[in-house]
Design brief:
Structural class: mainly alpha
Shape: globular
Helix content: 55-70%
Number of helices: 4
Radius of gyration: 15 Å
Strand content: under 5%
């Protein structure tokens, strides 16, 4: 019974982290990239692709999103540099367990 409760808590917390990453990335592009040469049409499948990710698997996307946020500006150069530094975080997808 405790194992089931633990698994449920971990799954819920992991899904919350994934949703937060999707929202943070979208917020960066929406607020920082408007009027620039960078376009982002959103990613409606982001949360679904990350549902099966563990915290360790989410780490590259966390690093990618943090890189974007730390830049505090949007340009093709910034997006490319963050993608180069954190390639596993750009289009992360995990299998459902």
């Amino acid at each position: 019974m405790r194992s089931l409760l633990f698994l449920t808590v971990v799954t819920v917390l992991g899904a919350g982290c994934a949703a937060g990453l999707c929202e943070r990335r979208a917020r960066f592009f929406e607020t920082r990239c408007s009027g620039t040469d960078v376009s982002f049409d959103g990613d409606p499948m982001c949360k679904a692709r990350l549902e099966g990710c563990s915290k360790a698997e989410l780490a590259p996307m966390e690093a990618y999103v943090a890189c974007l946020e730390e830049a505090e500006q949007c340009s093709m150069a910034v997006v490319a540099e963050c993608a180069r530094a954190h390639p596993g975080g750009v289009n992360l997808a995990c299998e459902r367990r």
